[in-house]
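In the design runs reported in the main text, the only information available to the sequence generator was the tokenized backbone. The following block is the verbatim input for one such run; it is reproduced so that readers can re-run the procedure and compare outputs position by position.
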């Protein structure tokens, strides 16, 4: 269900889901830009993308898709991998930064949610629950090794030049391929598998 439907039917529910979703995406993108900056690429900083201001990160088409269909995207933080001190290592770390950030945020939200027990059913509890859930989904989705998702760039950092070239050729069509695979339900078991892996790791740290 798109966010527009939710806004019309349940304004409070819209806020409880939209606010965690918005800032989960912002922190994800910030992490990419910050790690790139620390590794020698100031592009995101120069363009003002190292900011918590939502207007710096919203993509008009991605936002419209989110409101109408429940699937959308933010403007990717620009990274010039050629400026990184170690291009291969930088590609891995910059790409993994957003995923790791989402996992850390999910862990923190679940930790705070547990502190509210045995009565986590208020608005604070719902916000924490959805914040954790959204961050787990974002991390799992971005682990998929298809361009332009982060998982593909992590794979490229480890792969041979022929694999990198193969993945790079598909990047311009990647978003359309991903939307098609989501529509067909092909990616759902992959996302569920990555969600299980992330939750298993969190359970180890938060028994």
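Verbatim output:
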């Amino acid at each position: 269900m798109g966010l527009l439907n939710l806004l019309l039917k349940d304004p409070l529910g819209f806020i409880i889901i939209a606010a965690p979703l918005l800032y989960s995406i912002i922190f994800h993108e910030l992490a990419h830009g910050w790690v790139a900056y620390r590794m020698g690429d100031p592009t995101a900083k120069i363009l003002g993308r190292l900011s918590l201001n939502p207007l710096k990160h919203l993509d008009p088409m991605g936002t419209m898709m989110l409101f109408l269909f429940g699937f959308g995207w933010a403007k990717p933080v620009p990274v010039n991998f050629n400026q990184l001190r170690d291009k291969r290592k930088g590609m891995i770390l910059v790409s993994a930064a957003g995923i790791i950030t989402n996992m850390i945020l999910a862990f923190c939200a679940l930790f705070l949610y547990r502190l509210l027990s045995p009565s986590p059913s208020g608005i604070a509890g719902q916000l924490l629950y959805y914040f954790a859930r959204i961050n787990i989904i974002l991390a799992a989705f971005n682990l998929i090794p298809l361009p332009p998702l982060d998982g593909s760039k992590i794979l490229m950092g480890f792969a041979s030049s022929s694999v990198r070239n193969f993945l790079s050729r598909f990047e311009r069509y990647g978003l359309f391929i991903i939307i098609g695979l989501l529509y067909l339900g092909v990616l759902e078991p992959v996302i569920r598998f990555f969600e299980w892996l992330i939750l298993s790791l969190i359970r180890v740290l938060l028994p």
